[in-house]
Design a protein that fits this description.
Helix content: 40-55%
Strand order of the largest sheet: 1-2-3-7-6
Strand content: 5-15%
Distance between the termini: 69 Å
Shape: globular
Bound molecules: thiamine diphosphate
Largest sheet: 5 strands, parallel
Structural class: alpha/beta
Number of helices: 14
Number of strands: 7
Radius of gyration: 21 Å
């Protein structure tokens, strides 16, 4: 067999891109494994929804975006935040509820946010952020900008009323938005076959005269290509797209439920895990001569060290002060009353 050319500028470019993807995906995977460990021993409270298995979606999409584009998502947000450029430290600190977290420790796992990166969250209400994405795209258009807004949600969210309103208006008003269904086939413990009459979810696009496409979410290159097209359509033609990304979550819905056993069988999960996006990319890079096993192990060790460092940073960070209870709260001070404040402040201690 002819030896592959790995020394041309094009080959070097391809290698650099693939290494960046692998790095991003490994960082997400090792970060979340570490956060699962922290959750299990009580370092993290509240909810915690892991993205493990879906990393090619975040990585392929973020690679297609410009820094001034906007990203908005639901509660399964750690991987997307990391891929967008938020640091492992500020995210882990947020999960630990610490003052150094991206939302001052008051938001937790579901409310990651970074205005500098135009990463607009982290939203806990299923489908609630989809109209916000349409609103962001409207604002871009109103100001005459050429940014786009990408909006991630699960397949269960396509049954929420807000989804329909948001897509209808985005198409009617020619807004620069890409709606991304991360179809992992389960909404909590409910299979798509039990919740959704038209299971070919991308067909929803037809109702809104919008282009709809489907892509293999385990293949980072396929995701990148699909997103390039959808983002260009938004940026150049001011047309929205509905992209269905077929993927699998390898963990339970959240840290409070098992990966398999109740609503899906171990056999089904095992079969899905045969298409681990990281293993697929690694195998391709090895066979294309882009990396060696030693290169991979080095990258993996670095990702594990970064996750451990994030844990250490979060653990050493202070709790938010009791006074912080009253910052970023949308209430009229005059109606709350000082006595009430003092009483509530005690709660924080
Ligand atoms: C309006 C609303 N209803 C119910 C819930 C409870 N809930 C949280 S996650 C979830 C399932 C959503 O599944 P999907 O949209 O497919 O996303 P995935 O978890 O698969 O990423 C539900 C029903 C909620 N948060 N908001």
């Amino acid at each position: 067999m002819a030896k592959k050319n790995t020394s041309s500028p094009a080959a070097a470019n391809a290698r650099e891109t693939a290494v960046a993807y692998l790095h991003s995906m490994l960082m997400q995977r090792r970060f979340e494994e570490k956060s699962a460990e922290a959750y299990a021993i009580g370092k993290i409270g509240g909810f915690c929804h892991l993205y493990i298995g879906q990393e090619a979606v975040s990585t392929g999409t973020m690679a297609a975006l410009r820094p001034d584009d906007y990203v908005i998502t639901a509660y399964r947000d750690h991987g997307l935040a990391l891929a967008r450029g938020m640091t492992a430290n500020e995210i882990m600190a947020e999960l630990f509820g610490r003052a150094t977290g991206c939302s001052g420790g008051k938001g937790g796992s579901m409310h990651l946010f970074d205005s500098k990166l135009n990463f607009l969250g982290g939203h806990g209400i299923v489908g609630g952020h989809i109209p916000i994405a349409t609103g962001v795209a409207f604002a871009i258009s109103y100001r005459g900008g050429d940014q786009v807004c990408v909006c991630f949600f699960g397949e269960a969210a396509v049954n929420i009323g807000a989804f329909h309103e948001a897509l209808n208006m985005a198409s009617l008003w020619n807004l620069p938005v890409v709606f991304i269904i991360e179809n992992n086939r389960y909404g909590m413990g409910t299979a798509i076959s039990r919740s959704t009459a038209q299971q070919d979810v991308v067909k929803r696009a037809e109702s809104y005269a919008m282009i709809g496409t489907s892509v293999d979410g385990q293949d980072v290159f396929a995701v990148r290509k699909e997103m390039d097209e959808a983002i260009e359509r938004a940026r150049k033609e001011q047309r929205p797209t509905l992209v269905e990304v077929r993927t699998t979550r390898f963990m339970g819905h959240s840290m409070s439920d098992a990966a398999s056993g109740t609503y899906r069988s171990k056999e089904e999960l095992d079969q899905s895990m045969q298409r681990d996006p990281i293993v697929l990319l690694k195998t391709k890079m090895l066979s294309d001569g882009m990396i060696t096993e030693a290169d991979y192990n080095k990258m993996d060790d670095e990702a594990k060290a970064a996750a451990q460092a994030a844990w250490d940073f979060a653990d050493a960070s202070p709790e938010p002060s009791p006074e912080e209870l009253f910052t970023h709260v949308l209430s009229d001070e005059s109606t709350v009353g000082a006595a009430n404040h003092a009483e509530l402040a005690g709660v924080g201690r």
